[in-house]
Amino acid sequence: MWKKSKVTDQTATGQGGPSEAEQEEEKKAGIKKRSKVPGVMITQFIEVLPEGKSTPDFLRKPIALTIQEGKLAIFKANVCGDPKPEVTWGRAKGDMSDTETFQKKYDEATGEYTLEIHRVSGEEADTYKCYAINEYGKAICTAALNVIEVGFKKKKAMEQLEDIGSVDPAEFRKLLRKRKGVDKEEAVKEPGEIDERFWEIIMSADRKDYERICAEFGVKDFRVMLKKLSEKKKERQEEQAKYIETINNLKHIDIKGLGIASFEFDLELKDLTSRIFLYKDGVMIPYSDEEEMKHSLKTVGKKLIFSVRDLKAEDAGLYQVDVEEVNLFSTDFKIPTVDFIVKIQEVKAKEREDAMFECVLSHPWPRIKWMGKNATLEEGEKYTITVSEDKLIHRLLIKDCSQLDKGIYSAAAGIKTCSAWLIVEADSDPASHGKKKTRKTTQAGGTGLDLGKLAQEQQEKLAKERQEQIDAANKARAEEERLAREALLAPPPPDTGDGDSGEGGDSGEGKDTGDGKNKSKSGSNKSKDGGKSVGKSVGEMKDSEKEEDDKKNKKSTDDSDKGKGTSNYDIDPNANGEGDGDSKGRKGHPGPLIPDAVIGSSLHNDAEKERDDKYKKSTDVSDKGKDPNVKSGTGETEEYIDAAGMHSVRTRQGPLLKDTVIDPNGQSGTGETEEYTDASGKRSERTRQGPLLKDTVIDPNAQSGTEETEQYTDVSGKRSERTRQGPLLKDTVIDPGVQFVSGLSNVHALIGQPAELMCKLSNDNCEGTWYRDSKKLTADDGHIMSRDGANHKLVINRCQEEDSGKYRFEADGRKTEAMLNVEDPPRFDPDDLSAFSQPVIVKVGNSTTFKLPFVGREPMKIQWYRNGEELLDDNTTKIEKSFTQSRLLLSKCQRKDTGEIKIKLKNEHGTMEAISRLIVLDKPTAPQGPVEVLESTASCIHIKWRAPKDDGGCPVINYNLERQQVGRNTWKKLGDIPGVPEYKDNDVEHGRKYCYRIRVVTEEGVSEMMETDDLTAGTLAFPSSPAPPKVASAFNNCINLTWSTPTDTGGSRILGYNLEKRKKGSNLWSPVNPTDEPIQEKKRAVTDVVAGNEYEFRVYAINISGLSEPSSPSEFIFAKDPKNPPGKVEDLKVADTSYTALSLSWNKPTEEVGVQDEAKGYFIEVRQAECIDWTRCNITPIILTTFTVKSLKAMAMYWIRVIAINDGGEGVPQDLDNYILAMPPPVRPCFTDNKMKSFMVVRAGNSARILLNFEASPWPEVMWLKDDVPLLKRVNISNSESSSQLLITSSERSDSGIYTIVVKNLVGQESFSVEVRVTDDPKPPGPVELEENVPGTVTVIWEPSPDEKRDDHLHYSVSKRDSTKGSWSMVADRLFNNKFTACNIMPGREYHFRVYAKNDMGMSAPSESPTWGSERRKDTFVVNMPAYKTCDLRTAPAFLVPLRQHTAPKGYECYMSCAIKGNPKPRVTWYRNNISLNTNTNYLITNICGVCSLLILRVTPKDWGEYSIQIESSLGRAESSTKLTVRE
Q1: Which residues, 6+ apart, have CB-to-CB distance to 1230 below 8 Å?
Q2: Is 0.70 topped by the overall pTM?
């Protein structure tokens, strides 16, 4: 099995104690002290400080900063100490000598030291240190500065590209040879033996991964492997059965988020106390249940989730989980080598505009993880995530940006991440606040670089690297085979051998020693076979050196002509060649070398240019026998810039021509360039072709141009003036050549469809040439090239995939380029699509099939949908897919399956959909009720019902009716009626009750029946009262009313309504309409009114039985013209806010006659920032001008508006200028306790409690730390809105330390530290010895107390008693060593010494010393002591003060106490309802000096009951009880 190293001390690296060397160094350096401020280390230079002096310490230490690039970073610190310490600043990396960037300041008024870093950049990101030093010690603290880079750094990106491409091929191949294998320290495996790591991985892997794992480890015999794997799995299952019940849902390790990887599985243990271990590559690694740690374990029910944070390259390896000594799960973690070439950069977008983030990777990656505001972003309506075809360019498009979208966005690929800000600029128009803005079609963001070109260059590099790897592997394999053959056929070579030499003027002989290094000596070695020399090499050369030499030998040329010259280019000593050797034994070249690069080829990147520079240096040779000073230039390589502006390399084939220098002082004027103005007034340039004519004075009035003054530019570029004395020569205008009027444009074409590329030249008579990917095109290649004057056109009739590429048109040294992208999106044949679109009809329970052929480039994503929901394979659905078609098989169709069937095809070029319809026929459902009685008289019953909800896919043919007279058992068949849902039964008897059954009849069958209620023939059923009428509008001469239908129509339809009115103050109701002419509609315009009077109205409903009861009266309404709506409220503001409510106040709107009238009430509306709908807070208008909006979500953003209303309607809403945050006014956290203890001592085993009160707004985040690290789970933390409590129920010595509470909110943070020392009564020192080193003194030496190592506050005191005194006197105290010298020791006396150990808790029992000295003998003095009777001080347990009754409110503290006595000390036990509470951690129990107390921190109804305390000793037992009542 895989060997694991067991770690006995399961602590993380670096958490153990210091080594001996470190302890010695600490002793030399000084005494380490701990500051009350977390994160500060104090070193004391001397043991005892003088009185009144102190070491430096920090009152306020600098805090870590994360700041945007280009901003100002400020670190602040306050220090204390006597004498006043000197403060200095430093950093972990780099220096701070730049005074413009790093400025150190001191404020005498506040005593504050500051370090300002101006215009921070990535170079200033570092850990900064602050030192405070005086003569007694020093204090140090650190703070980190993190810088967020903004924008794209082109120089940095180019340097990264150069680093990737500038690796020397030879060096790169050396790296390739470092393949995975067995380490040198591991034992060499026998042939055919399988690595144990293989079994660990494959036993936890899925079956689909077997082939990949076997290929990785070189396992070829699958049958043997599977057999052995089955045996190993069986053995492991037997081992696991000892400890676990089940283990399933194993998920291998994977990168989940930003720098986090995790794996998980479900585990059920037989014994919950079984230990779980985590190993990496066989070495145990510690883990914690705290998610902030490097390795953590999170348990959710049965699920175990192991996480690794802050991923680095060294985190890759084999992770294993064991229970006790049994392995459960193994997973191999591999970290990809992908990195960002171009990172995402800051984007500034306007509201309602789209924003784009884009990046380029170094290696193809299928899909990176995009995150925004620490949440993973997925493809959807808000975000569009795209990946280029080569999987190097990744883009994130954020649509319709709003203020909520701004923040930091991140991209993660493997363990590499990059982040950038999205800044959303608000609209500056104040009139648009609170209104929805128009969606914009523009897009912000993007790097501004040609990412396609960068990705193409990176792809070429990757392809080149892969090819070099393949070549290197092939060469290595061939070399190994050659060496193996030579080893079998030939004896080993001698220890030394001659190197290569070339014939010529100089020659060299080289030796190859056993380590593969060449050394040259003078001598010659004649070559054979036409000048070839073979050098013998001894010793085994490394594979990387051989591959490098093979490549270099391949680049050399083998020429039979002999020449001389030297080369700095390394050549394989075993290769054949001719030429002179240099001083290092390298082989010379036979003549002037021509570099491998093709003449005129372009250098695409700096790496290739650098390589060609090396070639150019290696080709600096000359022909044999020629004068080296002659500058023939033949064979020399030079760089030049071609017409396209590209750097190229070419070799001269002949001598350089002699340079011809034109005398700049000559007056010939030939070739000079001058400016002139032509007849049209346009300024141009021209070049003179001959000398200037001699100046001649001519009549100034002449028009020949004589004595004209003009400006010209001489050869040196200086502008001058001159006057012509004669006529101008004819201008010679230089033709600029052919220009492109319009160039080529990128074209996207479908495969099989024609494509056209066209450009236009400035000359109609110019011919041109077409190229595709630098290959010249001809008419025979299936391309039609035509020219129509200046227009040149290239037509491809039927585009194929191979037609894609870069097309170039060249004419007269000019060129234009464009890309032709031939796309192959999914497509359907029109006939097949037409057939697929026809509805498919099938009966319920049967099966049906949808099939549709298609064409398009693979890979193709095929999805089927039914009614918008994607279909997946299940019991009734089966989807078949192939390269040319897809088929959907639906079996056992049900009626609910009826609906739209859609197929969706998607590939990299596009998406295509086709829609059909499935109709499943079934029996109809029953008719729908309730049944409406249209008429019920003594001779007929007329009923009406509703059609069935589902007709089963077929129209209703008939309704089948049956009737039963109530009281009889038989049903009478009334027969089928046409498909109209109503029936009039004329065969009824007056007063009888009838019941009907109704069924639906279609072609597919008969539905279930619907049975009606009992209907009576000929009874009067009046309708119920209608609702009160409502006033729609009112005028001086008319009032418009509306009302609704009564809830109960009486079993028949409503025939009409009668309306009545009554004037206010009158008791008489008068009809509005004649009683014999009911109102048919549910509205009426009442015109019989008097202007200025107030009226109310009521209405009656009429059915076949008669009038209903009148409705309730309406509200009183004045007959007068309507008012105008009020205006906007004024001075709207927020008076107060909290987490759940906010208070508003405003002033009434002003009145303007004829424009806006007085407001009668107000409505308040609110909406959240992310919603678009307004919610009204009050149902009825309020009269006051203040209102409190309640039930808000804490920390949510809200928009508020107020609407005034009167009889004329609602006015224009008045919005607040900005959104409101549901939170009280911000308050920086501060502690409210006046006296907070910063030090407390607790006896081991007792409880420790720290309660701190504070105030802060918004609600703060409270965090407790112990010695600057998170607390363990055994420490209970209770937080409330204004306080926090730390409780350790049973303290241990390991709980000693500095506990720090950090209270933090949006405004700031505050911290406070309390040092807790958990200790116990010290144990006495060891044996005491006495020595006399100096006469008259005695040195007391004792063994240290066992508690000395655990308690740094432990010290000793020494007491002395001599034979002349009967009392003990203390002679020394606060001794921190283990010896003391007592003076004034008198001879002739006996001395006794006692040594005590002391700490913060108390003093130990003494350790007695032997007797020192001898007492002078005296006569015996005899004292006859009277006999005394001994006094027995023992007493039985008893209560001095018993328990009393307690009534405590719910949620408050309850404190019970009593006083006891007894000797010996009795044992105390508390009970609640006869259940012991001594081990219950919810209660704080103490016993101090006979006062026994029990504290309940928060009383709940569960604490109600009887409490008793029992005291017991060997002399008896006593008990006291009480009752606790909990008040709500």
Answers
A1: 1254, 1255, 1256, 1310
A2: no
